[in-house]
Design a protein that fits this description.
- Belongs to the RNA polymerase subunit omega family.
- Residues 73-103 form a coiled coil.
- It catalyses: RNA(n) + a ribonucleoside 5'-triphosphate = RNA(n+1) + diphosphate.
- It comes from Streptococcus caprae.
- This protein is an all-alpha fold and 105 residues long.
- The protein has two domains: 1-61, RNA polymerase subunit, RPB6/omega (Eukaryotic RPB6 RNA polymerase subunit, Alpha-Beta Complex); 63-105.
- 69% of the residues lie in helices and 0% in strands.
- It contains four helices and no strands.
- The protein has helices at 7-11, 17-32, 46-56, 65-104.
């Protein structure tokens, strides 16, 4: 049985078998977690879908993983702050409505 895509074409996209394995595993986890695919897939399994994306050159190893990690953490922090701000505004609106309701009674 022949693996599609072949290991030779995949190794043209990444520097080593180890890197290929790590990249495939990370992308497969992302796909299983609900990430949007970058193309239409022939395969059903997320691990093979990840290999299809790697072969097409649509998923690559980030040249500076520390900077990528920092940017992801910064985005997560910004999202958290935004959610807290929205929650604060909702609480203020509720308090204001209760105050107005108390004046009407």
């Amino acid at each position: 049985m022949m693996l599609k895509p072949s290991i030779d074409t995949l190794l043209d996209q990444v520097p080593s078998k180890y890197s290929l394995c790590v990249l495939q595993a990370k992308r497969a986890h992302e796909l299983e977690a609900g990430a949007q695919g970058t193309q239409e897939f022939k395969s059903v399994k997320s691990t093979l879908q990840a290999l299809e994306e790697i072969e097409a050159g649509l998923v690559t190893i980030h040249p500076d993983p520390d900077r990528k990690r920092a940017s992801v953490l910064a985005k997560m922090e910004a999202d958290r702050i935004k959610a807290e701000e929205e929650e604060r505004k909702i609480k203020e609106q509720i308090a204001k409505e209760k105050e107005e309701e108390g004046e009407k009674i």
